[in-house]
Amino acid sequence: MGLIVMSERDLQRIEVLSKIVEGRMTIVAASSVLAASTRQIRRLLDVFE
């Protein structure tokens, strides 16, 4: 298996999106943490899930 390189920003996005899926964070809270709109967070969730 090869090495996967990710930026800190991408790692933070994955952590926050995982928290939303687990029910430990809301989309509104995630949008402020990631400095993105709630619509952008929903679009990221569609790709993530």
Q: What is the topological layout?
A:
Layout: H1 8-22, H2 27-34, H3 38-48
Task: Write a compact overview of the structure shown.
The chain is mostly helical and 49 residues long. It has helices at 8-22, 27-34, 38-48. The model has no long low-confidence stretch (mean pLDDT 94).
Task: Report on this structure.
The chain is mostly helical. Helices cover 69% and strands 0% of the residues. It has three helices and no strands. The chain has helices at residues 8-22, 27-34, 38-48. Helix 1 packs antiparallel against helix 2 and helix 2 (27-34) packs across helix 3 (38-48). The mean pLDDT is 94.
Low-confidence stretches: none
Which shape, going by the Cα principal axes?
Answer: globular
- Total number of helical segments? 3
The residue fraction in helices comes out at 55-70%
Distance between the termini: 23 Å
Radius of gyration: 11 Å
Question: What is the succession of H and E elements?
Answer: HHH
- Beta-strand content: under 5%
Number of strands: 0
Q: What structural category arises from helix and sheet content?
A: mainly alpha
Largest sheet: none
Mean pLDDT, rounded to whole units? 94
Features:
49 residues; mainly alpha; 3 helices; 0% strand
